Structure formats: C-alpha cells, structure tokens
Amino acid sequence: MGAADIEEQPTSLAHEFFSSDDIVQKAYLFIFEIAIFVGRFNPFMYGTLQVLGPEHEFSIVDQKLTPLPIVDQVIRGVHGRIVNCVRFNDFSFGKELQAHVAEFKANTPFDSPEVFEETMKEAVDIVLGFLEKRYNARLLGLGMHPSLRLKDASVWSHRDRRIYDALSKVFNLNRHGWLNIQSFQLNLPYKNEQEAVKLYNALTNVLPYLPALAASSPIYESKIGEYVDNRLHFYLTNQLEVPSITGDIVPEYVSSFEEYLKTTVKRYSEDLAKRSAPKCLLNKEWLNSRGAVIRSDRKAIEIRIMDEQECVKSDVALSCFIRATLRGIIADNEYPYLPYDTLVENLNHVVRYGLDADVQHPRGETARGVCRHLLKIAYENATPEEKKYLSIVEQRIENGNLSTLVLRDVTKKAAKTNLEEAIFNVYSALANCLEKNQVYA
Q1: Range of 425's domain?
Q2: pTM of structure
Q3: What's 58's domain CATH number?
Q4: At residue 79, does pLDDT exceed 70?
Q5: 5, 311, 314, 6: which is closest to 139 by C-alpha?
Q6: Closest C-alpha among 191, 96, 90, 202 to residue 145
Q7: How far, in Å, CA of 288 to CA of 247, rounded?
Q8: Residue 71 DSSP label
Q9: Rounded (10°) CA dihedral 336, 340, 341, 347
Q10: I need a labelling partner for 164 at 20 to 30 A (CA). Which of 263, 283, 381, 398 fits?
C-alpha cells in the first residue's frame, strides 16, 4: 500500500546511509552487504524466489456491506488491548491506515502454495468467526470498497498515529488513494545483491501487465469508475505533493543497491526535506510507493501493484503465476527487457483498459496477448504444485479480470433493479467468495 503501509518498522541501513556524511557512506554500504550476507535482516536464509510472503487487505463490513471502522475494537477484543498487530500461531492480524481495513499476513513465508492457501484461508476463518459472533460483521476483499464515501472514512488513531500525522502534514490524506484502497502484496526473497538486482529488473518487465490480471476495483462511491483499475489510478496520484515517492509506479532499472538507494530513497527523501517533512519520514525504505520495492529489512522484494482479489485461492494463483514467470525470465539471458518509458506507457494503458489495452511489446499487441505469453513462460517453469493454480490465471486472461466480471454482472442486474441494489447483490456474492474461498467466475 506504499506510504500507507505503516507498521512497526525495523531500522533500515538506508537511514544511517543518508543521514551520515558522504565520507562514510561507502562504509555503510559495506555494512549493508555484510548484513545481508549473514542474514542480519532475516533470521531465515532463503534462496531467490524460494518462498512466498503474502499480505492481504480486507474491509470489515456489516451485513449491508457498510464499512465498519472497528479494527481497533477487534484487536482489543482478541488481544485485550489495542496494538498494531495480533500474532496467532501461523498468521498475524493487524491495522492499516484506514480504520475499516485489516491486514492479514503470514508469520513465516510459504514454499508450498497449497500450505499458503490452507494457512491464510484458516486465518480468514478465525477472524471471520470472531467478527460474526461479536459484531455480526463480514470481510470484503477487492481493490476498493464499492460504496465508501471519503467523509465517512477514518484513520487509525492509536499507536504509530504520529506517522499518519506526519504524512498529513505533507499530503492530503482525504483521497481515495489513501482511504479506499486494498492491495494484495507479495514478498519474494533474494539471496544476495546480484540476484536481487536481476529479480528487481525482471519484475520491472512484468509489473505493467499484472493489473490486467489483478484489477478488481471497477466501482467506488456507488458509481462505475472510468478505469479498469481505479485503485491504481488513485494510487498514482495520492502523493502528488512529492511525486518522486511513487514515481511512475514501474520501478526504474538499477545495477546495484547503491544506485537504488541514491536514485530512489535519497531522491524522495531530499524532496520531502524541501517540503519541511517531519524527520520520521526521511530516509525510509518503506515509504517508497512504486509497484515493487526492495525491503532490506526482509531481504525481499515486495510487490505492491496488485488489487486484492475476492478470495485467498485467487491470491495464491497470482503468486504462483508471478514466481514461475520470474523463474523463466531470469533464466533466459535473451529475454527482451523493454525501454523504461515504454513500460510506463504500457502500464498507463493497462490501468485504464485492462486486458484490452494496446501495448508495445514484441510478444503481443494487447495486454491480453502479453499475459498469454507470460502464462506460457509460467507453465514452462512452474512446479507441479504451482501448475494447479495457473488455470485460474488462464481463466482471468480469457474471460476477464474481476473488474470486468463485476461490471458484467452489475450491469446485468442493474437493468432489472437499480445500480445500488445491483452493486450490493454482486459484492455480497464476492464476500461469500472470500468466506468460501471460491473463485468468482
């Protein structure tokens, strides 16, 4: 979720790097390398792409699908007091910037997609059971809540509120790009700097087409949006005051950690300083809001470009598709890496038109064509377990992403009733999908 994805952040060497004199910056980079080598940022050492680290964002809603800003109350009810995050055996449940949105994430990443699905489905079941019993409430996925009005949205007001207060001094938080977005985030590990750079640059060539598969935000404020992926449209503009934080969403190519820190983190930190931003926002890696960011504290690359889906199974399918595709691209020394400006233009078209977007790519003239090409790579490089999920991605490519399917059904039902009732009926079915872990088709 980018700058809104605030949690108890471990110290990053980016902070020491940029707050120190130029003379000693190379020393910090050396420490950065040593830290990664010995696993300083992660008690587990994973190979590149070895595991999948998911983070899900769901709205808490009542039976009429009205957003309920009660994440703090739920945490207190489960934990006895209000904290940022409650840790269960296999997963953690916690707050987001929005008081009605809860984050679900695994305590340890998954090698097995099937264990990923089983564990996170159980997480949904456990929290749902508490919500139903205590509040007669439900959970709703997708990239945006369909009827939330900004005037009715509120921000987390407890621990770490100082971060949100700091953000509000620089940005106008009363925007959909802050208060009404839900993403599915995926963390992919890297072994060392060389492999991290390869993974990051390969992702740069995949990210522009992921929204064509993952778009699930066709409706907001009870109206049909102009874009297939309205969440990303609002996300692109939520930090206009300091545009270098988000960039063009597509990550810039890099050749080293040093280049990444200097051209990305240092750049937006300097821009923030020019606007007299509070020091707690300066030199923070987690503030980077591109579609993929290097998280040195996790020794992983975090993908943030995808809308949340309707159920855990669909999130697992996207994860399998991405991991298998990246395996193939990284192994292919002749894979065509497109010019950066071309990738940005392709993404902008995909955000607006989805799978039907015209793109510039040697493997397809439309986003659907490129996704078919990437799916072929995925099938060729997937494990037997991953292949079980790729048919879900294939179904999205051929029949439409969630935005397309939701618009199809809302339009059909609205012809018999009205738009508001049609939205309620379709999104109620989508809430059922999350509860049953059933793919919407």
Answers
A1: 2-436
A2: 0.91
A3: 3.30.590.20
A4: yes
A5: 311
A6: 96
A7: 9
A8: H
A9: 80
A10: 263
